[in-house]
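Two proteins, back to back. First:
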Amino acid sequence: MKTDNISMQQILSLLSAALLSPLILLLPGETVVAGGRAGWLSALAALPVTLLAGWAFRKLLEGAPEETGLAGGLELAFGRWGGRLVTLAYLVWGLLLLGWNARWCAFRFLATTYRNTPLKLFFFILLGVTVWIGRGKWAAFLRATEVFALALGTALVLALGLGALKTEWGNVAPIWIEDLPGAIWGALPVLGLLGYGVYAAFLGGHMTRRPENGRQLTRWIWGAGILLAVFQLVCIATFGPGLIERMDIPFFMMVKDVRVPGAFERVESLVMALWVLADLALLGMLFFGCRSVLEHWNGGTYREWMPWTIAGAAMAAGLWTVPDAFRLNWLMEKAVTVGNICVGILIPVIGAIILYVRERRRTE
């Protein structure tokens, strides 16, 4: 029995809000390392692969049995037991991401605002709020993320618009042919960022199937690619690639110099406060993605033990698998990128190709 009806627009709003949390920590720092002043082109270089992943998600969700979402699509592609092993990998990776990102967000709070506060305090607050959200309904969370996405999107556009007035465009030009290979390699961090979105696809079993869903997803992918390019372009043009590489959060540094006379003398305070909504959207997406796997294994039925199991595993991952902030940063910037590309792009594309080949054989 379907308890929560959600739409593709709500899924895309969740993605828009959730991806802004790791975005400011990863970009443009990682793309500048690979591509220098051409690093902002990495988002455009990632578009073909992202569009392929979008096709894969549509294929898996359309082929999945009713109300099973991505978990059902993966089992259809890889077989019952092969699919169970694949969804187990998604569950384990999702729990690790939940714990690591809760700690990473807590570390960001510590670095940008409350420097004398214990890190674990922020970690437990974030995880506690996420558990409270995760014990509720999918639909209520997704309705909240629509508001989150609107508020965050408005703040982002405002900050980029005002930041563009203080840029030095010589920092991003000229771009020569020899700069392009670095920009292409810079697509990997972008793909790693977008790979988080696979956990939103696990909610697809509760989504109303409409013909326009595919078109909405494709438009969102194009829009996200352009926005990521503009975001990086403004940041790189403001500071230059050399300074970007030495900064922890270039976006927050950029908005520190942005003021709206008569309204906000310190825009960064507003932006930093709003970004907590992005953190909650990301953690909630990961939490519900893990919960959907457990529900699928339990015949589509929710049990009260599920949120507490997820919370316990995430807490263990966040506190005990990474000893310090330096290793956490390396993990989130390097290892998570590789892992997200595997689970967010490679596996879904392989599964979709398997379904496509089967369909072609049946029609021949």
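And the second protein:
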Amino acid sequence: MNIQTNVYKVSNYGGLPSGLLGHLNLSSTDTPQGPSNKEIIVIIDLSQSMSSSLLHIQIALQNLKEVLDPEIFMTLIGYNNTAFELFSGPAKRCPKMSTLCASGYTNMGAGISLAFTKIDRRKATWMVVLSDGISNLGKYQTVKQFEKLMKQTPDRTEIISIGLGNTFDANIMQSLGDFIYLAETEGITEFFRGLAKEITNVQIFGIKATSNFKSRVVIGDSRLGCLSSGSTLQFGVVTQYLPDNPHFKISYRCMDDLDTLITKEIPLSSSEIKSPPDLVKKQYYTFAALRRLQILYKNLASVHLFSTIQTIKKDIKRWTEPSSQEARAMLERFLSKLETKGDQHILGYQIAGKINYRYNS
């Protein structure tokens, strides 16, 4: 695996203090790519309220099967009063789910618990949880109870929760993992096609980065460290001080060779540090905007919402460069809706869904 690192000097653009912004480029063409180290588990709400959505679910699952590498292992789990396995095996063997039926209550915890027992810990696992309602049966029904359950999540597992319609509990869905809001059930098909392409094409590495000075380090947008061949992974480093000889220690583990942990240290002398190009600035502003959306989401039901809005508005006034305008416009749209007393219930779903923009492209 080839790693190249550039560090750019930040001089108060976008309101940042003087410091460093890092850009990590990885080329992973030297690693074999295949389906043997990946799996997907889909957990489907089959309670009574899902009856009108079943046709779209069936179509979406068929699209998932068609786009996914046929050898990638696929598990389908349904849940209502209890949880049960619908299919398990290579994607190419998955039948059409034409006999799905909706009935009973919503025991989401049972579905997730069963999925945890199906995970192959030797693989990278994508786990998708679908629901249109509130968990109203079983021992997992509150945010705290689900947070306790999610502590059992195995390593190398990416959990994506999908809220359908407007009746589910967004706080619970957020507690599960990356939350996606789909106002219309028809959107499931597009989501599954995008996710299937990602799973099929990526190579899997566990990525960590540390520096020799106190800083904020953000790596990419995936806990799995999913890297397509020749892709670029972004990380931002911001500090008040510029050390004479900063360096980052990059460690990674290739999932095709779980016994090998390679650590690579990349020294970065101050003479190499330049101003960031527009592409890197734009990527920083995208992540900066999403972090502010997360703050908004957490304060939607808080007495501090108005002051949070004013703080963010004041903050992004300093975003004057062309590379910041797309991210700034996105934030301003949400701020405007909140200030005009829009439906905060729906806006909350939209904001939370936007945070996980990787699946919304």
